[in-house]
Amino acid sequence: MPVLHHQTRSNTRESTPASISHASVHSYRSGTDSSYDAPSNNQKAGNSHSRSNTRRSKQSGAASLKSTGGKDGQSFIAAVVEGRGTGAEVGMCFCDLKTSEVILCQIADSQTYVRTLQKLNLYEPVEILVPTTTVDSVNSKLVKIIKETMPSTTITPIARRSFNDATGLEYIKKYIVKEGSASLLLGIPTKYFCLAATAAVMQHIEETRHAVFLNHSVRFKYQICSGSMVIDCATARNLELTMNLSSQNDKDTLFGTLNETLTPMGARLLRSNILQPLTDERTIQTRLDCIQELSQVEDRFYALKASLKILIDVDHLITSFIQVPTKPSVKHSEQRINHVINLKHTLHAITNVAQSLGPCQNRLLVTIHRLLTDPRLEKFSDLIDEVIEKNVVLEKTAIGIRHQRCFAVKAGCNGLLDVARQTYKETCNDILDVTNRYVQEYGINLKVQFNVTMGYYYTTTVDQLGGNEMPLVFINVVKKGKSLTFTTLELVKKNAKINDSLTEVYLMSDKIVSDLSSNIRVEIGALYKASEAIAMLDMLLSFAHQCTISDVVRPEFTDTLVIKQGRHPILEKISSTAFIPNDTYAGSANTFQIITGPNMSGKSTYLRQVALLNIMAQIASFVPAEYASFRIIDQLLSRICNDDCIELNASTFMTEMKESAYIVENATEKSLVVIDELGRGTSTHDGLGIAFAVCEELIHNRSLVFFATHFQELTTTLTAYHNVVNLHLETEGQKPGISYKYRLVKGSAKEEHYGLSLAKTLNLPHYVLTCAENVSLRLTDLQESARRHSESNRVVSRRRALAQVSIVVGCFF
């Protein structure tokens, strides 16, 4: 094998193509360069010593094992079309260009398009296709809402004729994987709007991406909206489910807290579950049983993690087999060889995962094991071993990947292929001889390096020249510090000859690999199912991992929300101090809970904690508490942030009113609502009136509501309703300032002038604080005087009325 390390040319030629996976290949410069040290004059050719700088590079086609699901990972193109009738019937199609998965949805939505927006937020498409007739149209309410909710997403108008349901059905019949297609094809023909969206997406991909799918190779899924919790875009943002509001990353989020997945498939599934939690208790309990079993057997737990850690993105790998460019090239031929080698590695890793799952008893784990031991996967391995060298493994260096592509196909499959590879080997060895000749002739210790762009080239240091000029044979000299990079005309010719040989190798290998890929595509459905099984297993292992590192408890599901010593999952992870837990109780007798307390006492944190723990329970994760019982909810609504929206020219109060209107319109008995300080964006009296009206409406529809406020009047007026309870965050007054306990206790907050107490801890001038205190106390006295005066007037009026009644009664007698 023609690896450029120090050995004699005769020994090099004795290497066989089968030895490629064990080659001593080193990388340089972040994986793009490979190098070896040529011997100096006093070194013998047979005993030369090599020095190499090594760094790892990414394997071509392999994805990062830890997927965040953030902006960098977006690859969805969506199409949205609305029916022209009176009802809001919306059809959607999402196509993932990386995984070649197509999601179809048709929703009978409300006028606020809550379900439609949830789906768009779930997949975060980089581009949304809409009919041209809906853009800038007075009646295009849906497009306007999408632009307001997702301002960073590209809205692309295309011709209305592209949204053709008959064409969409033809695309599905043409591309769908045969296995399991009968059930989809039975019900999908009547879903006219999602079929129309499918036609638009497929045509757009063919026209703009210059790629087509192979027949019967794409996985189509039709998703119904029932069976999952509705979390609108604002709530997902307010609760920081997948994106942190301050740092704009996914680490300090619920996703980042729970994400211990080892594969990109598992991370994608986790993100999808967080944004769309389950509402089916039976499914949740099955997952919880599975997590409990995985966390109890330590050896199996670590064996599964070790097996998953070496897996690459299987969905991405499937796409490489079924999606081909319209104009094939040499680059595509060499990539196809990489894909087959990646599949060989993936199948071996899947076998290891299946072996570790063997003893499991949970029915979900048994199903995963069955999917991973599909006989067709073993058939794929046999087909690959017939063509590809058995000891070929994934290479990490640039030169190693090139050798891997060259010698992956077994010798003897094609005579001309073997001749081209022999030419490649001899040319590489000739470079070694030429380098030794330069070293002996010019007395310079040369280092041969490699990168994908330049091929082989030389480097040395200024010190090696000893003050002499660079010999004229060396050209294209580039100096960087003390390092010199250059080449020679002879080396340029050798690189060109190597490239010609590699082109022949790739083209001749491509026919063999193409036939192998065609045989694999016939049963590609087995890989799709294996990928789904691995994603589910990876997510459940991530939840089980939380059980081993945190004090968590398995949630129960009843008609009452009970959390004993619950903790905020995100803050507990990122905070350097111990988090103070709190209890939560909400049943049919106290569905509306008013939480009061000073600024910074922890009201917003408590609201978010309740919502996040409910989400964790409904995605089948254990929760940080001593005991937890949840009521399964079908919708989570929130009003937390008070930020202005500059993009939409909306003030804090306008945003408040929009979100409040949305909550009032959509809240039901099965909803969980968290509201933080509603009404503070306008005048005190108007804000109090609006807050009271919203609270009264939510009390009547018996939603489960946690309402944090500074309006003390609400704590007295709303207690007339039997299902309202007052709670507050405990504090203690001290000079100066307030001592925060962060404990939730019964009753409303008694602390007065807590704003002044907090201001005293800051660097405000003393005379400013004194003036503020005087004004505050004066206003309080005036308010109290007005109240007393109002009470005395009422007493006088009541006595006068009684006196008049007495006079009238006396007249009759």
TrEMBL record:
Q: What is the lineage of its organism?
A: Eukaryota, Fungi, Fungi incertae sedis, Mucoromycota, Mortierellomycotina
The UniProt entry, under PROSITE patterns, shows: DNA_MISMATCH_REPAIR_2 (PS00486)
Q: Which domain of life is it from?
A: Eukaryota
Using the UniProt annotation, give all residue ranges assigned to the region (Disordered): 1-71
Q: Which UniProt keywords apply?
A: ATP-binding, DNA-binding, Meiosis, Nucleotide-binding
Residue ranges annotated for the DNA mismatch repair proteins mutS family domain, each copy included: 671-687
What is the name attached to this protein's record?
A: DNA mismatch repair protein MSH3
**What start and end residues bound the annotated signal peptide?**
none
Q: Which SUPFAM superfamilies match?
A: DNA repair protein MutS, domain II, DNA repair protein MutS, domain III, P-loop containing nucleoside triphosphate hydrolases
- Compositionally biased tracts (Polar residues): 9-51
**SMART domains tied to this protein:** MUTSac (SM00534), MUTSd (SM00533)
Q: DNA-binding as a keyword?
A: yes
Annotated family: Belongs to the DNA mismatch repair MutS family.
Return one Gene Ontology term, BP aspect. reciprocal meiotic recombination
Molecular functions per Gene Ontology? ATP binding; ATP-dependent DNA damage sensor activity; mismatched DNA binding
Return the InterPro entries for the record: DNA_mismatch_repair_Msh2, DNA_mismatch_repair_MutS_C, DNA_mismatch_repair_MutS_clamp, DNA_mismatch_repair_MutS_core, DNA_mismatch_repair_MutS_sf, DNA_mmatch_repair_MutS_con_dom, MutS, MutS_con_dom_sf
Name any GO cellular component annotation. nucleus
